[in-house]
Specification:
This protein has 14 helices and twelve strands. By secondary structure, the chain is α/β, with parallel strands linked by helices. The two termini are about 15 Å apart. The strands form two sheets. Strands 3-4-5-2-1-6 form a six-stranded mixed beta sheet. Strands 8-9-7-10-11-12 form a six-stranded mixed beta sheet, sandwiched between helices. It is flat, with a radius of gyration of 29 Å. Helix content is about 40%, strand content about 15%.
């Protein structure tokens, strides 16, 4: 955990990633940035204006020449004085500059996520924006990028803060009722006017919560599990969709014992494809464990692809009960199948690449339907779901218990607002900070 007194230090880190590159960017943040820039480059550049300077070591050896930028507080990423050194990206150059920075008084290497944590501590972004920034760095598909960019720009925090402001206003009107209850010129109860807007707010939050699964799919991936009898073509299909050899393909039954997974980008959406052990009644101890894991994985699926060899359907098996829809796939369609293709949703031949385009198109339609196209303000973490549920529960209780004293209903509104405050990081989230900022790399 970053101790509070650590914020007196000036931190530095390579922010452009390790490895040889044309340009490397080293970031600085803290109270001694001006002194460090003077010591290593001669003087402090004008704010937000790039200056081309020589960069010197402590023994006045010239280390490199590059661009130097200065961002004075509070108009910087962290809210503190910040600086950047844009130098040549060779390992020796980068190491020499980092070593020289470490020798300056009050300077130390940044911890993972510390630049962003300082931005949070200084009110430059709230916790949902921080999470969005972490997701933006980790984004692998177009929809992940879009959602993370919206969230890091404050789409979620703006929504949640507006809801919290509405709850605070409602409580203020209740307090006004208490203060002016004896005044003759106050027409009726001021607090009576709050309940209808709060009922509409509860509907908004409920609808927002219903979209949580869509947000989680975009962030974490749409889970597609391949099931079927041994030698139904499960591993061949996994390799074909991944376009590389991941699973062992063999005529020998039971070669897949554990669950294999591959991450795909289908239509800009993240899809996680799982290959599983073949399902059959007569199996040894190890293969039975593989079947157990296959069924457990299928229980958490968003979609099940159930494969049947058109030439050898095998023994019938019971699919796991769950919410996941099942797409029946007939395989090895290049052979003379004994089973009618009409009994399957799609017939494919991995060997001849027959039907694969149709399958990919269906997968894209399924994930689009599950995730939707609106990504600007979707809750996408379990933490979001928990606090939104707590907020909605307290708000519903305040609305429904209209026979209770007004003080108790006001307390429920406070609890609802506090849940939103914890969601954005405005209230009591110290126990979460190390976990959240640990997702970042050093230099961010």
């Amino acid at each position: 955990m970053v101790e509070r007194e650590h914020y007196r230090d000036t931190i530095f880190a390579l922010s452009s990633g390790s490895g040889v590159a044309g340009v490397a960017v080293i970031r600085l943040s803290g109270p001694s940035v001006r002194d460090g820039l003077k010591a290593m480059t001669g003087n402090v550049p004008a704010p937000r204006v790039a200056a081309y300077r020589s960069i010197w070591g402590a023994d006045r050896t010239r280390l490199d020449r590059g661009l130097v930028l200065f961002f004075p507080a509070p108009h910087s990423f962290t809210g503190e004085d910040c600086g950047e050194l844009h130098i040549h990206g060779g390992r020796a150059v980068v190491e020499a500059v980092l070593q020289s920075l470490s020798e300056l008084d009050g300077y130390r290497s940044a911890e993972p996520g510390e630049f962003t944590r300082r931005a949070f501590e200084n009110g430059k972004m709230d916790l949902t924006a921080v999470e969005g920034l972490a997701d933006l760095i980790a984004a692998e598909t177009e929809m992940q990028r879009r959602m993370a960019l919206q969230q890091s720009s404050g789409a979620l925090s703006g929504l949640y803060e507006s809801w919290r402001a509405e709850l605070v206003r409602a409580r203020a009107l209740i307090e006004a009722d208490f203060d002016f209850t004896d005044e003759d010129d106050v027409p009726g109860s001021v607090a009576d006017s709050i309940w209808q807007p709060l009922a509409a707010l509860a509907v908004q939050i409920e609808q927002h919560l219903e979209a949580a699964r869509a947000g989680e799919i975009i962030r974490d991936g749409y889970r597609v599990v391949i099931l079927g009898a041994p030698n139904a073509g499960k591993s061949s299909l996994l390799n074909a969709l991944a376009r590389r050899d991941i699973a062992i393909v063999s005529d020998e039954k039971g070669t897949t014992r554990d669950v294999l997974e591959v991450h795909l980008d289908i239509g800009g959406y993240p899809v996680i494809l799982f290959d599983t052990a073949g399902l059959r009644a007569k199996a040894g101890a190890v293969e039975s464990e593989g079947i157990r894991r296959a069924l457990k994985t299928a229980g958490n699926a968003d979609l099940i692809l159930y494969l049947e060899d058109l030439n050898d359907p095998g023994d019938p098996v019971s699919l796991p009960e769950g919410k996941a829809p099942v797409l029946r796939i007939g395989t090895k369609a290049d052979l003379d199948g004994k089973r009618s293709r009409g009994s399957h949703d799609i017939s494919i031949s991995v060997k001849q690449e027959e039907g694969l385009a149709d399958l990919i198109r269906v997968l894209e339609q399924r994930v689009q339907s599950a995730a939707g196209s609106a990504v600007s303000s979707l809750p996408n973490r379990q933490r979001h779901r928990e606090y939104l549920t707590a907020c909605l529960s307290a708000l519903r209780m305040a609305l429904e218990n209209d026979s209770e004293p007004l003080e108790l209903r006001a307390e429920l509104l406070r609890q609802a607002g506090d849940a939103l405050g914890r969601l954005t990081g405005r209230i009591g989230v110290e126990d979460l900070l190390d976990l959240i900022f640990g997702e970042f790399c050093i230099g961010k």
